[in-house]
């Protein structure tokens, strides 16, 4: 029987008792209502959820030399080990020995026929995967598929009639909500911990799709891959990471993100992400002012990759994307995640703002590709803002990583005491517009500045490599 149904039946039948199961404190004037505090017990939730939580043990077999080989290679002289030349001919004659590297983790069953969700880092490159159920029965598991970018994996055991958990909607999860983690920290199976959601949308630098739920429910090594549950017994997150130096800080992959990944792994064994072919960046207050945006929302298109879907749809650098399939886009991460979650071949309506006017184009997605970046040149000399500029030609455009046809003025040096030094502009940035007027040569730049009166604003728009725009504002002296 589906565990979530069991749990819902329990909570419905115990509705009267639930009023007693919480302690309320008097309302503050600001809140205007009572505040629900700690649940009296998580025991029923744990009792019903634990049969679907598994312990995962993996073995990776590697071939290495004997003790002498391990002792001398790389210690303590690194690659220039003086003993290597002497010992290597003898060591090569020794038969290599198999070494079994073991690791532990957690997972949870998502279907009665044995599909199990866990973390990629728990099972990646494993030669053997063993799954231990709640009743201590152990089974060999086979790999169905993994996704390193989100650190998710799907494995399967050949068993029928298993209890399982359902993925809930992490989008409706609120900060301060009670959650329960179940797993095998330090190999201690079926450990239950409880806490609250501390934050959402955390970016911890683990990959391009970071969007973690932060919780203070105790999560330790071995919890990886286990479920983070709401009080209805639904999985709202997959426990994944901890902060080594932190106390009581854990991170879980949101179930909303995991659901699409798991579906793809189950159907095809791999994840294929949509790609529209743009480099994007968040809208800063300066960029919002420069592009006359009423609200600081949407993402700025910094580059369009030639021949890719966005280019074919007519999107150009400087466009501000505000919606995808009618959903509001507030950050570059929103757009990346939305596009990545759509299937290759999808025809996606994209709403953008260009020159203050909104329009919708249709982008047919292809398989995701990689972007590129260039490096900078350096020279010297300064204008009134403390910038040294040099016209970009086809030769130095390639050196900087731009397309040959790109034109503008590259920043070759910045005066340490000048205005530009504190503006965030860097060597290698490409000045392309002054007060919305394109400038490609030094003569055009000087002529445009000459038309601006003393005391008036000077807005400069720069490109940084192929991936972003920078807008700065100075006052004409």
TrEMBL record:
Q: Where is the active site?
A: 121 (charge relay system), 151 (charge relay system), 224 (charge relay system)
Q: Name one GO molecular function term.
A: serine-type endopeptidase activity
EC numbers, comma separated: 3.4.21.107
- One Gene Ontology term from the biological process aspect of the record: proteolysis
Which keywords are on file for this protein?
A: Hydrolase, Periplasm, Protease, Repeat, Serine protease, Signal, Stress response
Q: Which residue ranges run through the membrane? A: none
Catalysed reactions listed for this entry: Acts on substrates that are at least partially unfolded. The cleavage site P1 residue is normally between a pair of hydrophobic residues, such as Val-|-Val
Q: Name one GO cellular component term.
A: periplasmic space
Q: Where in the cell is it found?
A: Periplasm
Keyword Phosphoprotein tagged: no
At the top level, the lineage of the source is Bacteria
Q: May I ask which residue range the UniProt record assigns to the signal sequence? A: 1-29
Domain PDZ: residue ranges: 261-356, 365-466
Q: Which family does it belong to?
A: Belongs to the peptidase S1C family.
Q: What is this protein called?
A: Probable periplasmic serine endoprotease DegP-like
Q: Which organism is it from?
A: Desulforapulum autotrophicum (strain ATCC 43914 / DSM 3382 / VKM B-1955 / HRM2)
* Organism lineage string: Bacteria, Pseudomonadati, Thermodesulfobacteriota, Desulfobacteria, Desulfobacterales
This chain is encoded by the gene named degP
């Amino acid at each position: 029987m589906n565990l979530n149904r069991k749990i819902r039946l329990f909570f419905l039948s115990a509705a009267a008792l639930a009023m007693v199961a919480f302690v309320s404190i008097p309302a503050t004037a600001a809140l205007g209502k009572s505040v629900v505090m700690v649940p009296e017990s998580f025991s029923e939730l744990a009792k019903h959820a634990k049969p679907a939580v598994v312990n995962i043990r993996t073995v990776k077999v590697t071939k290495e030399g004997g003790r002498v080989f391990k002792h001398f290679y790389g210690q303590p002289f690194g690659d220039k080990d003086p003993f290597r030349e002497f010992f290597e001919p003898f060591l090569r004659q020794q038969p290599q020995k198999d070494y079994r590297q073991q690791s532990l983790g957690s997972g949870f069953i998502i279907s009665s026929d044995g599909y199990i969700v866990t973390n990629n880092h728990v099972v990646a490159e494993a030669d053997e995967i063993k799954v231990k159920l709640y009743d201590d029965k152990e089974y060999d598991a086979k790999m169905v598929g993994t996704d390193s970018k989100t650190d998710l994996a799907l494995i399967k055991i050949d068993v029928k009639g298993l209890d399982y958990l359902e993925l809930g909607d992490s989008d409706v999860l609120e900060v301060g909500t009670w959650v329960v983690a179940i797993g095998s920290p330090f190999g201690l199976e079926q450990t239950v911990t409880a806490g609250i959601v501390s934050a959402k949308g955390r970016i911890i630098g683990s990959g391009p799709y970071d969007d973690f739920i932060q919780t203070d429910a105790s999560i330790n090594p071995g919890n990886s891959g286990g479920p983070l549950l709401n009080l209805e017994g639904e999985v709202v997150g997959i426990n994944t990471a901890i902060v080594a130096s932190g106390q009581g800080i854990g991170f879980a992959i949101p179930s909303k993100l995991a659901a699409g990944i798991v579906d793809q792994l189950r159907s095809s064994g791999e994840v294929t992400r949509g790609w529209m072919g743009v480099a994007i960046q968040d809208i800063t207050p300066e960029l919002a002012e420069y592009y006359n945006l009423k609200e600081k929302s949407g993402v700025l298109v910094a580059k369009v990759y030639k021949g890719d879907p966005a280019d074919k749809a007519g999107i150009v650098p400087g466009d501000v994307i505000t919606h995808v399939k009618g959903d509001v886009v507030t950050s570059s991460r929103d757009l990346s995640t939305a596009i990545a979650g759509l299937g290759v071949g999808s025809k996606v309506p994209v709403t953008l703002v260009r020159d203050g006017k909104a329009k919708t184009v249709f982008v047919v997605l292809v398989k995701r590709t990689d972007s590129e970046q260039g490096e900078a040149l350096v020279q010297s000399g300064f204008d009134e803002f403390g910038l040294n500029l040099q016209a970009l030609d086809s030769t130095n455009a390639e050196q900087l990583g731009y397309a040959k046809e790109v034109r503008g003025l590259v920043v070759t040096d910045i005066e340490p005491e000048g205005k530009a030094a504190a503006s965030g502009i860097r060597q290698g940035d490409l000045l392309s517009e002054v007060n919305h007027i394109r400038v490609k040569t030094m003569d055009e730049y000087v002529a445009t500045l000459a038309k601006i009166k003393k005391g008036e604003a000077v807005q400069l728009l720069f490109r940084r490599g192929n991936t972003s725009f920078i807008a700065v504002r100075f006052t004409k002296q």
